[in-house]
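Hypothesis: this fold can be encoded by more than one sequence.
Test: take the structure tokens below, design a sequence, compare later.
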């Protein structure tokens, strides 16, 4: 049992204002494995005050970019030494297969720290531009106090997409982890202390929705950085719009994998398994719509079904496991509800269905539907589980039309023997991140979505830019 009785505020471990607690439940065993304080609005006030003090009067925003980069580099070194512990902890608290945790849940946040540490060493705060009457100085300054509100599916990844660039920019941060996965944030706080990051620069308060909205609405918060559902993103955008507060929103997806007729199905299925089923299907970028031409439709359905059935379903701590449990019972019921919807809509269950693979744990059967049309709910709504819909198309233009016929535009892939032609397809699909015969996210390039998939970009230089204000200083003489 991991018992935490305090909150990380102002660089210290402090007692919470209330007596409520959050129980962390292992989704494989259904046993309580941890307990943390349930942050209250008063705790959020205290955390924002600490961040405000650190920003307005502390040293962090007044350091050079190179000095902050050096501190981020120290944090990266500590993180590197503990990434195995971090991976195991995330698997324990949310059910991510340990192989995925070791591949992405811990290494990718580390990569973000390393990228921004390196990028910041030579980043210039000011640049000179010529003007009509004399030079102008363009100065980059931190936006201020950031509220970072993150979900449970890849908790360190989504936290670090905000923390790493915000730290380099000189911002101070209040992080609200999801109630399902607060334990990894405590490990991060210990690393931040060890790295010597000044008190108040990063504050961590796990809490539920009410306290989260209090944080987002707080008048001393200058920017909100949110990852989560599109519905929640709309609510946050409304709050930020009313207050004229900066915000970036990374929201949902319903990404399409276009399988062209020349694709080598045998060679593609291994990578497509990662792209479509990563993290038990609980990924906003998951390729859950598989688009196949009428000419090869049955062949693609068979290949996808074989790919899914080859995934071992079980204990996420076992390296042989490909698909683990969903994060919570409510998520299990939600995904099973969508499987029932698909059956009622007339789609055919090829593999999977409503029979649970295990009696204990929040498992669902990985499911493949054929006979899906793009107007069905299982093709339009984000399910957030291991459920794939194979949709037929007439020709390449029709495939691109179907891929774009979505409220979302976060990610996508194309699978083809001709990678150059795949690039032509990629340029026509309206999504923020795309892969040709693969899918990956890199720390040095922007990540974000079109349409209802969000506002703004994270990672790369563009991710840093969203934590900066740009000041122009003109002079004469």
């Amino acid at each position: 049992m991991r018992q935490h009785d305090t909150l990380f505020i102002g660089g210290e471990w402090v007692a919470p204002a209330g007596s409520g607690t959050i129980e962390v439940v292992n989704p494989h065993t259904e046993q309580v494995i941890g307990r943390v304080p349930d942050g209250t609005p008063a705790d959020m006030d205290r955390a924002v005050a600490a961040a405000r003090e650190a920003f307005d009067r502390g040293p962090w925003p007044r350091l050079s970019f190179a000095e902050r980069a050096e501190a981020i580099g120290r944090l990266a070194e500590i993180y590197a030494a503990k990434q195995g512990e971090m991976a195991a902890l995330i698997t324990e608290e949310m059910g991510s297969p340990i192989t995925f945790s070791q591949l992405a849940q811990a290494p990718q946040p580390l990569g973000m720290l390393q990228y921004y540490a390196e990028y910041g060493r030579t980043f210039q705060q000011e640049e000179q531009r010529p003007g009509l009457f004399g030079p102008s100085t363009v100065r980059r300054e931190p936006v201020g106090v950031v509220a970072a509100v993150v979900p449970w599916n890849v908790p360190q990844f989504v936290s670090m997409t905000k923390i790493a660039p915000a730290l380099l920019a000189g911002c101070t941060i209040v992080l609200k982890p999801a109630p399902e996965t607060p334990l990894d944030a405590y490990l991060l706080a210990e690393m931040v202390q060890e790295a010597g990051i000044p008190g108040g620069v990063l504050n961590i308060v796990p809490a539920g929705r009410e306290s989260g909205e209090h944080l987002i609405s707080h008048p001393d918060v200058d920017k909100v950085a949110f990852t989560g559902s599109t519905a929640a993103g709309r609510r946050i955008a409304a709050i930020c719009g009313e207050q004229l507060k900066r915000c970036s929103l990374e929201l949902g997806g319903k990404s399409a994998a276009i399988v062209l007729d020349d694709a080598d199905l045998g060679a593609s299925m291994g990578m497509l398994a990662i792209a479509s089923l990563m993290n038990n299907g609980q990924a906003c970028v998951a390729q859950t719509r598989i688009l196949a031409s009428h000419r090869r439709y049955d062949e693609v359905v068979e290949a996808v079904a074989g790919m899914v059935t080859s995934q071992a379903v079980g204990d996420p701590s076992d390296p042989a496991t490909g698909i683990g449990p969903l994060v919570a019972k409510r998520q299990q019921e939600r995904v099973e509800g969508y499987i029932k919807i698909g059956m009622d809509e007339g789609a055919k269950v090829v593999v999977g269905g409503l029979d649970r693979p295990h009696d204990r744990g929040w498992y669902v059967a990985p499911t493949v539907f054929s006979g899906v049309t793009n107007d069905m709910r299982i093709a339009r709504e984000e399910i957030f589980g291991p459920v794939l819909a194979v949709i037929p198309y007439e020709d390449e233009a029709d495939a691109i039309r179907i891929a774009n016929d979505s409220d979302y535009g976060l990610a996508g892939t194309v699978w083809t023997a001709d990678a150059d032609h795949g690039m032509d397809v990629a340029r026509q699909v309206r999504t923020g991140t795309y892969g040709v015969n693969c899918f990956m996210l890199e720390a040095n390039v922007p990540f974000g979505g079109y349409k209802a998939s969000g506002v703004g970009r994270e990672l790369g230089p563009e991710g840093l830019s969203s934590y900066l204000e740009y000041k122009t200083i003109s002079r004469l003489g």
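The mean pLDDT is 97. The longest helix spans residues 65-94.
Hypothesis status: open.
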